[in-house]
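We modelled the chain as a single entity of 287 amino acids. Its sequence is:
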Amino acid sequence: MRAYPILSLTLALCLALAPLTIRAEEDEEELIINEYMDELLVEDVYGEGVWDFPVALSDLDPELIRIANRSYLLPSDYVPEDLTKVPRDPDEGGIRWAVTPSDGKLKGQYLREACAEALCAMNAVMREIDGFRDMYLKSAYRSYQKQKTMYHNRLAKNHGKDDGWVSMEGASDHQTGLGCDVVPKNWKDKSMNEKMMKEPECQWMAEHCHEYGFIIRYPADKKEHTGINTEPWHLRYVGIPVATYIMENGLCLEEFHDQLQEAIDRFLLAGGDPALVEPLIQRTAEE
């Protein structure tokens, strides 16, 4: 007689747990279906190829990662569309200017809008750090013609020798509107050189600039790739995802472009959609 209540209880528990088991199986099946659909979605977007580069395609802005050097010369008529005058009052969110340059119709320090905003944001943070209150923007956008004048003046002073301190016209990072020279107060009126690397402000920028989308454009020991001497003051805006990858991996922009091109080649070889990566491909004059 005592077995009947136990049997009834067991039967009741089985009936109660049955819906839970069914729901668990349904949830697992739905998860598998969702994962499969996600894979189908990736294939729909990328074709047959798989994008295996550490920086997502959606985080690669062709304009922000545009490179300028002797191999990839910018046209003489290249002028960024969204140049904006950098605010110079640090108490109102700007950054002091070391000089007020004149470049054609432009008078003052100009950068592309996203770059100017990021620079001012970084400067605002630096002003809160003891001893970092006075940073100066020494040079920003420079036109092709302005760079040509500077380069040939440098050659004239250096007996025709290119010593790696001034880029030739078309090869200057400044022409992109995304490169800027930022210096501590005690360097604003001095000729810049690699000794600035010892300044705590420059060391801070080297460690933290990627948090605002910048890289050190011409790092130490990268001249074989950049063709330019070490410039701890020269920041280049590429956006936070790209800057983080470059800085954390100890790359220069040229090395990043080489890696990116290899990833694009793999993507296309696997059948990826060319339209997705074509804007990222920058060709040399010879190509």
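As a brief sanity check on the tokenised model: The helical segments are 3-46, 113-126, 144-157, 200-208, 223-226, 240-248, 253-269, 274-277. The radius of gyration is 27 Å.
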